[in-house]
Write the structure tokens for this entry.
Amino acid sequence: MKGTEIREMTAQEIAERIQQLQEERFRLRFRAATQQLENPTLLRTIRRDIARLKTVQRARDQKEGR
């Protein structure tokens, strides 16, 4: 997920996407503890996507004065 894609999303879409990625990350971490993952770099990718989403979300909140 790229920064330009994230900036085009609404605040509600960003919050929903963060929730989805956090759930997916939890499932992957649980699966990684019990068995080998097909794509272990997916955990890193998801973690970075969450960080990008939260960064844009926080910048918008600060801009609005929250």
Remarks:
- The chain has one domain: 3-64.
